[in-house]
Amino acid sequence: MIRKAMALVPADARRPLPAYLSALGVYSVAQAAAYVVLVPLLEGFLDRDWGTASIWLAVMAGAVAIAAIGAYLQFMQGLRIGVGMLRGVSTRLGDHLSTLPLGWFTGRDSAAVARVVVGEVREVLGIFAHLLAVLITSIAVPLGIAVGLLFVDWRLGAAMLLGLPVMAVVNALAGRSYRGADDRMHRAAAEANARVLEFAVAQSALRAFGAVGSGTRALDIALVKQRRASKALTAAAVPGLVAFTLVVQLVFLILVYLVVSWATAGDVSAASAIALIVVTARFIDPPTHLAHVGTAVRVASAAVDRVHDLLEAEELRDPEIDARPADNSITFDNVGFGYEPGTRVARDQSFVVPAGTTTAIVGPSGSGKTTMLRLAARFYDVDTGVIRIGGQDVREMSLETLMAQISPVFQDVYLFNQTIEDNIRIGRPDATDAEVREAARIAAVDEIVERLPDGWSTVVGERGANVSGGERQRISIARALLKNAPIVLLDEATSALDPYNEAVVVRGIRELIEGKTVVVVAHKLSTVAHADQILVVEDGQIVDRGTHTELIRREGRYAQFCRQRDRARGWRLAAAG
């Protein structure tokens, strides 16, 4: 655990490490020396040899003073290292998560990831603030006492040296069953956290359908599982704790028995026997303290492992040489992809989107249209084939270079719990206020700002809960306008909007795509009819392609799609017969 915990400390936070270890060493040695000095000190007092006792009392006072200074220094330096680790690991995790493919997140509960990023990192902080000192002193102090007693009574010192590995082995065995139970507890707690959050967010849906009572079933089940996992964790921890405590006490009794037997046999004086028993009690004090914090140590060790597991998740790595695209064209060359092994959402897809043109993708729901846009933006890496932008494989471009080429505008808009201006400025953080305002004007966000009491400083709430769907989409258009990337990926950007908001957003989109390379997923004929080419997708395959006029003449799937749209456009409500 210690080695893994040290690996989490960033380089700039490791500077106090030598001072920390030195202070911890001084503290341990001085504490052990103070305990060993108890033997001649108590012998002097019990034998009324005040001169000898005074000398050893002065030595003990010096050792205690040095131990106190060492304890203070190691605590302060440990706290500095821990805080530096907390800052560094939080930054590393944030940077690392931003490089992971989206496929990594789809197989994991966000609550479990959040638990590691927030909770487990704080558990690791305790290692440097407190637990590491306990671990080291629980070994160094008894070892120092045992070695020191070799020069006072070698028999007792040797017995102590034999008892140390016995206690260490029992402590290691006690922690084996704990790890599996802790992993189950971690998963159960993450599930319960997710269900609590879901229950809070879904209140409108639950109340609208009168399902508030039934809607708590998943939450109730998760809480029951968490309670059972907690009991199992306690059941796994207590036997090991009890066993270790019993072994420590057994070692103590054996050592005391040896001292008493030597005293009754006349090998040591009564004064020496009393002093040796007192020192023996101090010998088992650090291991006893370790038993009390043993659960905390195991929790921290499991937390270290989970943080490392998250940091070791395979990321979308940047190439050693950053390839630069020659233009803004997009090429799919025999692309195949599946979200899960053995599946295929994209099958042998090959097409070219020339620079400055618009390509529309149509097809039934679930046919893989949105996946094509995500692959183009390298949200995932393809399983087979290659995707090129400007003639360069997207995997040979750094994420920074690739993202500079692309402005995605998706139907599901995510807004941060910040102001309207901050959410727009994400498109280009270094933009001037005038540029932000101009992008907002084109996307008609200024209309929203004018009717809000806090104007530009209005906080949109978590996921943009304080604004409507159409207003969220306008803000996303303004964000993309501000970024002004040469390639625009549009995914059903207007499908869920009312006519007024749709008209406003469409005007913004027209400004956004002017002179750009555009790939658009849409169902509305008004959106796709004027595209330079249309790709018809079914079951992950491109089954037809061409312009609107060409595809209508072929009487294929696209023509059927258009006829279905025409029929749906004329629907109306009628009274029952």
**Amino- and carboxy-terminal Cα gap:** 76 Å
Low-confidence stretches: none
CATH class of the largest domain, anyone? Mainly Alpha
Number of spatially distinct domains: 2
Q: Helix/strand/pairing class, anyone? A: alpha/beta
CATH level 3 topology of the largest domain: ABC transporter transmembrane region fold
Shape: elongated
- CATH superfamily membership of the largest domain: ABC transporter type 1, transmembrane domain
Q: What is the count of helical runs?
A: 22
Determine the mean pLDDT.
Answer: 80
Instruction: State Rg.
Output: 35 Å
Q: Which sequence of strands runs across the widest sheet?
A: 6-7-8-3-9-10
**How is the main sheet built?**
6 strands, mixed
Please give the number of β-strands: 10
Strand content: 5-15%
Query: Which percent range fits the helix content?
Result: 55-70%
Task: Produce the secondary structure layout.
Elements: H1 2-7, H2 17-46, H3 50-97, H4 102-106, H5 110-149, H6 154-174, H7 176-201, H8 203-208, H9 217-264, H10 270-283, H11 285-292, H12 294-311, E1 330-337, E2 346-353, E3 358-362, H13 369-376, E4 384-389, E5 392-393, H14 399-405, E6 406-410, H15 420-425, H16 433-442, H17 445-450, H18 469-483, E7 487-491, H19 499-513, E8 517-521, H20 525-528, E9 533-538, E10 541-546, H21 548-554, H22 557-569
Parallel strand pairs: 3-8, 3-9, 6-7, 7-8
Antiparallel strand pairs: 1-2, 1-4, 4-5, 9-10
Helix pairs in contact: 2-3, 2-5, 2-10, 3-5, 5-6, 5-7, 5-11, 5-12, 6-9, 7-9, 9-10, 9-11, 16-18, 18-19, 21-22
